[in-house]
Amino acid sequence: MLKRGKGHLSFHTPGHKDTSGADITELSYSDCLASPRGVLAKTEGEIAEILGADRSFLLTDGSTSGIFSMIYALRAAGIKSVAVPVFSHPSVRHACEVMGIKTDPIPQITAWGIPQQPNEEALRAAKRSGAILLTSPDYYGFFPPLAAAKKIAEEAGIPLLLDGAHGSHLHGTENYAGRFADLWVDGVHKSLPALTQGAVVSAKGKWGKFLHEGVLRFRTTSPSYPIMASVEYAVKYPRNLALEEASARFKRRHGCLENGDWTKILVPFGDKCESACSLLEEAGIYPEFSDGNYLMFYLSPCTEQAHLERLGALLDGLERGEVRRDAPTGAISMYTEEL
Q1: High-pLDDT (> 70) share of the chain, %
Q2: Cβ neighbour number for residue 103 with a 10 Å cutoff
Q3: Which residues contact 90 (CB under 8 A, 6 or more apart)?
Q4: Residue of 43, 1, 46, 51 lying closest to 22 (CA atoms)
């Protein structure tokens, strides 16, 4: 695409008029995202194959537009309610409000300031709804009982939706959302080497048609080609098994909270959280968040092991305090919204 467009004169958007790079609009050689026939159709097809989907759609509006598109798909199929964990991303509630879909809260308890994923019993009660939507993994790197959720949804004859905004690095593994869900979203930019806002929303079977209807309504009509190209690059990026193993060793050595996601390192600092965060920032290290109990450090396949070792050396010299049991924590309110 870049080779074909090199050097042409721009009498089209964007206004910078520079055609030497990928930041162009939808032209004859660059395809049309709303009705792809060329390079974008090929890209979406290859991404769907990698992710195990029947249909996958590029998003340059982040996972939020994917959530809206999935909720629209439920509405298009005549579904009027969806069971959702109490702590879910705000976009879930907002999409349901816009689409007139009733939310049936799935209870969650908190332990040590962290929302626990719904258990199988809670999910069985949720099958009275028209659909189930879970977060997998959550912001702390924990997973719902995915196999049980799939079985419960299949027995009830309802779709299972997964907000996998923080799990795009998991494709090809046993916990990947696409192994279980009828519809799911990947926030590719969060844990893979894609530009910010790069995401993918996918579906299986009949849900591909309904999801497409949602995507056409909530995805931008001015897609960023640099973002789309980075999503393709990221989805095809290889696993970093050496780093995954290094992460597991790091967690054991530094007394991190045990979770199921190698990209999310939770170090308990309790009431020393803010002072530890400040000292790390003075040394040029910035965690993903401090919630008043834990500092969370977000890895990706691009993280350098030398940087991880540098972090470990600094952690060894920091004072730790008592982890508090009270909830919700700052990170809950930052990333989720209680239904």
Answers
A1: 96
A2: 20
A3: 336, 337
A4: 1
b/e per residue 62-98 (b: at least 16 CB within 10 A): bbbbbbbbbbbbbbbbebebbbbbbbbbebbbebbee
Omega of the bond leading into 137 within 30 degrees of 0 (cis): yes
Query: In the block, which residue shows the tokens 């721009």?
Result: 10
Supply the pTM of this predicted model.
Answer: 0.94
Question: What is the pLDDT averaged over residues 33-44?
Answer: 95
Two structure tokens written together for 68 = 């809206």
Going by C-alpha positions, the residue among 258, 263, 264, 334 that lies closest to residue 292 is 334
Q: Two tokens at 206?
A: 């009949």
Show the tokens assigned to 127.
């099958």
Nearest-angstrom CA–CA distance, 84 and 100: 15
Cα within 13 Å of Cα(133), Cβ side: 33
The pLDDT value given to residue 337: 61
| Residues of the chain by 3-state class (helix, strand, coil), percent to 5 | 40, 15, 45
DSSP 186-199: E-HHHHSS--TT-E
Residues with Cβ within 8 Å of residue 35, at least 6 apart in sequence: none
Residue 123, amino acid? L
What residues does 199 pair with on adjacent strands?
Answer: 59
Give the per-residue pLDDT at 333. Answer: 52
HSE at residue 337, side-chain half, CA atoms within 13 A, is 9
Alpha-carbon Rg of the chain, whole angstroms?
A: 21
Summarised one tens digit per residue, pLDDT across range 59-103 is 999 999 999 999 999 999 999 999 999 999 999 999 999 999 999
Using CB atoms within 10 A of its CB, is residue 31 exposed (0-12), middle (13-18) or buried (19+)?
buried
**pLDDT tens per residue across span 314-338:** 999 999 999 887 655 555 554 566 6
The C-alpha angle with vertex 335 and arms to 183 and 292, in degrees rounded to 5, equals 145
